[in-house]
Amino acid sequence: MTTIADLRARMRIDLQDPDGDRWSDAALERHLRRAIAELSRAAPREERVTLATSPGSRELDLSGIAGLIGVDRAEYPSGSEPPAFRQITVYGAVLRLEDGPLPDGSPARLWCRLVHEADASGCTLPAALEDVAVLGATAFAAAEAASGTLEQLTLNPGTAAGYASLARERETAFRQLLRELGGRGRLRAGRVRVEAAG
């Protein structure tokens, strides 16, 4: 299974920094996390999350779902065949079941979009998206180097220009891939109403 260390190693190859002379692990991880966060908005991790309901309340607290981007569907009661999808409203960290039986404390199942994760134990990105994350992360790292803000690095003008060119090229490719991924339009069934907070 791919780990964040594997992704960092791929970044170092692309940035021609195999020995870690220019970028610290922490700097590369910061750029990776930014790229993964942006990639997650275009191609999120999709999971079904079971959440307890409160007897007599149609509202569910979403604040405990780590990395939540959005909820596409809600089943209540969960486990019915066919699934008992409900109309929902999401406002901030609260989801409201707008129809169906009043919850009695039995669980609801939410069809969620989540931010991808990468750490020492693994990575939730599909293999096909790992290269996209590395592409974006190396663009951000090169842009940092070009701006002269990279710690403990002395750049001559030619090197700075080279990093700026690399950053532009890679970020353009990364943004194009994000547009393509976001435009594929996964099937969104169900009835959802979302209110803007504030």
Please tell me about this protein's structure.
It is elongated, with a radius of gyration of 21 Å. The strands form 3 sheets. It has a 4-stranded mixed sheet with strand order 2-5-4-9, with no helix packed on it. Strands 1-6-3 form a 3-stranded antiparallel sheet, with no helix packed on it. Strands 7-8 form a two-stranded antiparallel sheet. Residues 150-155 and 185-198 have low confidence and may be disordered. α1 (4-14) crosses α3 (127-146), α2 (25-42) packs across α3 (127-146) and α2 (25-42) runs parallel beside α4 (157-182). It has 2 domains: 4-43 and 117-182, no CATH class; 45-114. It has 4 helices and 9 strands. It is of the alpha+beta class and 198 residues long.
Question: Layout of SSEs?
Answer:
Elements: H1 4-14, H2 25-42, E1 45-51, E2 59-61, E3 68-75, E4 88-91, E5 94-97, E6 108-114, E7 118-119, E8 122-123, H3 127-146, H4 157-182, E9 192-194
Parallel strand pairs: 4-9
Antiparallel strand pairs: 1-6, 2-5, 3-6, 4-5, 7-8
InterPro entries: SU10_adaptor
Tally of separate domains = 2
Residue share in β-strands: 15-25%
**Rounded radius of gyration (Å):** 21 Å
The strand count comes to 9
Overall pLDDT: 87
Distance between the termini: 41 Å
Low-confidence stretches: 150-155, 185-198
SSE order, one letter for each helix or strand: HHEEEEEEEEHHE
Instruction: Work out the helicity level.
Output: 25-40%
- Shape, per Cα inertia axes: elongated
Quaternary: single chain
- Spatial sequence of strands, sheet with the most strands: 2-5-4-9
Largest sheet: 4 strands, mixed
What is the structural class? alpha+beta
Number of distinct helices: 4
